[in-house]
Write a structure and sequence with these properties.
membrane; two-stranded antiparallel ribbon; mainly alpha; transmembrane; 12 helices; globular; 322 residues
Length: 322
């Protein structure tokens, strides 16, 4: 495992240090929003996503993502934001990370809203219209997709297992679906998590600006839709994914300078080359941060006097007093 592994959330590492200002600020917002709905429960009716009220209260498409109504929920959201943001912000920049969080949050809420309306018309159950929906889980799922894109081969230590980062979003999606069948209460979080994974992949795959090459998105095979699934399913999924690619996002990658549409297939191997370059940049950035931390530790060790010198100094001080 590379040295940069210590900067990825892992058991036994110093994961709870070096948080960015942006993530600290968003964590404070999550905490204050939780306190607000605990002190004034009626505020959830205006800030959480209630599909029957979304048309007059359209702002809840944005605010719902930052409202955690339970203590475990706000703890998981804050810890996840700090840890994942610490990995992504040095590579993307604060502006791009904030843009990503805003887009994923808004898109996820819009998808959840449309889904609940469809389910209401199918089942005629009013609970779909009046149940307050909120939570930061869609953004957390999206941040996991970002880590999959940048450091797909990085191994994370999860309890006793070592799992590559590229499989974490898929494991989260599968686990969420499985738990929803066991615990009915968790069903309310399932659409948020699944849509968070999908819309974040859509944004990173087709729309995120890559200034270094003047294009948008990530056309590499390592970040295709089928890469979220085991290899034996990919021959089935690739033809289906190509249909949606042509319908919705087939011409989204555009040249920054000319504005002409570009397709990753026009440049044989360009997707894989760009993916390798992106991983190398991420690796260098993370290793640089680790080197800075090690340099700071060594500097502190050099400035501190050795134990023998400290003992001699104490003895001299004692003799002077005598």
């Amino acid at each position: 495992m590379s040295a940069s592994a210590t900067l990825i959330p892992a058991a036994g590492g110093k994961s709870f240090t070096g948080f960015t200002k942006l993530c600290k600020g968003l964590a404070v917002i999550l905490f204050l929003a939780h306190i607000l709905v605990q002190l004034f429960p009626s505020a959830a009716g205006y800030l959480a996503l209630i599909p029957a009220r979304t048309i007059p209260f359209a702002w809840n498409l944005v605010t719902a993502g930052y409202i955690e109504q339970t203590i475990p929920g706000v703890i998981v959201s804050i810890v996840g934001l700090l840890l994942f943001g610490k990995v992504l912000e040095p590579l993307w920049g604060a502006k791009e990370l904030l843009k990503f969080i805003f887009i994923v949050n808004l898109s996820t809420s819009a998808c959840v809203f449309v889904t609940t309306i469809i389910l209401y018309y199918i089942t005629q159950e009013e609970s779909y219209l009046y149940t307050p929906l909120s939570g930061f889980y869609g953004v957390l799922s999206g941040l996991l997709v970002g880590i999959k894109q940048i450091l797909p081969d990085q191994e994370l230590n999860l309890l006793v297992l070592k799992i590559s980062a590229k499989w974490i979003p898929s494991i989260v999606a599968f686990f969420s679906v499985a738990v929803s069948f066991i615990l009915k209460e968790s069903m309310a979080y399932l659409p948020t998590i699944l849509f968070g994974i999908y819309v974040s992949w859509i944004y990173l795959r087709y729309f995120q600006k890559r200034l270094e090459v003047g294009l948008r998105g990530d056309p590499s095979d390592e970040f295709s839709f089928s890469s979220f699934f085991p290899g034996f399913l990919r021959p089935i999924l690739d033809p289906i994914a190509s249909i949606f690619h042509k319908l919705f996002c087939g011409r989204s990658a555009r040249s920054e300078g000319t504005g002409h549409a570009l397709d990753g297939s026009q440049f044989p191997g360009s997707g894989s080359i760009e993916a390798n370059r992106r991983r190398e940049r991420g690796q260098r950035a993370l290793e640089q941060r680790l080197a800075e931390k090690l340099a700071a530790v060594r500097s502190a060790e050099v400035t501190a006097p050795p134990p023998q010198q400290q003992q001699q100094q104490l003895e001299n001080d004692a003799s002077d007093k005598v």
